[in-house]
Amino acid sequence: MARRIVLTMLCLVGALLVTAVIPLGLLTTARERDSFREDTVLSARALAALAEDGLTEHNGGQRTASVLARASLPGEHAWVYDKAGRLVARTGQVRPGDDAGASLRSPAGLAPAGLATAGVVPAGVVPAGVVPAGVVPAVLRHGGTVVTQAQDQLQVATAVETASGRPPAGVVVLARSTAELDERLRVLWAWLTAIAAAGLVAGVLVAIGFARWVGRPLSALDAAAQRLGGDALDTRSVTGQGPPEVRRLASTFNAMAGRLEALVHGHRATMADVSHQLRTPLAALRLRLDVLAQDADPATAADLADAQEEIARLSRLVDGLLAVARAENVVTEPVAVAVAGVLRDRVAAWAPVADERGVDLASADSEPPVQASLGDGHLEQILDNLLANALDAVPAGGQVRVSAAPGERGVRIVVADTGPGMDKAQREAAFRRFASNTSGGTGLGLAIVHRLVTSNGGSAALSDTPGGGLTVTLDLPAAQPGHVRHPAEAVSRKGDDS
Fold this sequence. Notes:
The chain is an alpha+beta fold. It contains twelve helices and 14 strands. It has helices at 2-56, 61-71, 112-118, 135-142, 179-229, 244-294, 298-329, 339-357, 378-393, 424-429, 445-455, 487-497; strands spanning 76-82, 87-91, 104-105, 145-150, 153-160, 170-177, 334-338, 360-364, 371-375, 399-407, 410-417, 459-464, 470-476, 484-485. The protein has a six-stranded antiparallel beta sheet with strand order 3-2-1-6-5-4, sandwiched between helices. The model is unreliable at 93-129 and 488-498 (pLDDT under 50).
């Protein structure tokens, strides 16, 4: 959950920054460039206004150059052309290689080599590296202002206007470097990137803190629920951490755990006490009936024998209740069990009973051998109950087959018989206590099987055997690689404990 909270917060903060920072940066960049462009155009027009007097006077190049020197800013380069397209003054360098790049020059002060550069510019011809070809003639013909971008310079060519209706007296070209603007924009984007990164980091830190604030009490509650499910009924969760909703959930969990503990302990105690207390009077009653049967007439002896059978049935019922109570009261750590060995061992133990009743009992080994994970001794109890039920139900000449194989969820054990089977309603109620299909049964065998299987994380299902009978299918969790308990180890351990 903590990871999902952090990722969600990161996506939200990232989306917010993308929708805010990038448009802000683009908008600021566009405004800065527009402002730079407008300022350059205004400066060019101001220079054109200042150069008007020099262009209208005879041989006014020196005066125009002086005006440009006073009006031009550092980093700017200006060129002034007369109405014939002749370069009459300039500031800065015309192109790389010219000397005195920052000096102010006019055609009158140029050396012969310079005069060639600053001389008359034929129509459509502009000094290389200064203004794009065709700009000056176009401005002289049509007037107005032309803005062009040349590498790292913004160039503005504007007409020197005179009286209304007369052609321009010349053209002023102003070139301003964009290096400072580009540097300023790079700094702007660097700041925006740093702010975005800081926002992301802050969002991650806040998300981690929030996830821990919410996740820790939930993790503690989850651990408490697992311990409670593992039969630690005295488990309680911490209630003073996290948001109010989580605190209320922890309080509700604790109240539920307390009530569950009281109910389970009461139920277990009642079952164990009642079952245990019934054993003594039943034993005494059976003994008294045996004594009475010795001196009774045949009719009375027959009635006493029927009563003894009912007492025997009641004793089996009490024993079953004790077995259920023990199955519900004992939670053991799961171990890895070699299923094939346990199957062979239990089939061998029940073989004499099957032979006595004329039932064919056999087991089938799986390839490869499978290992199940469940409580120590639970598989033996499960198989004993299933085999006892099957041998009671199958008539002479019938069959009981036990097999194990890898299943979809771990290990699958199948006990199939050819007895009378069960209808749908009987199968649905078979795992409930006291649900029996035979007159002498207690109805607890399958209930014990279901309790042991589900307590180990497995499942049990009943179905019809092809050709008639009942099939019990158990799906148990597979064991992790490690130590595997074999039947011989269980026998040895029981001998050591005794």
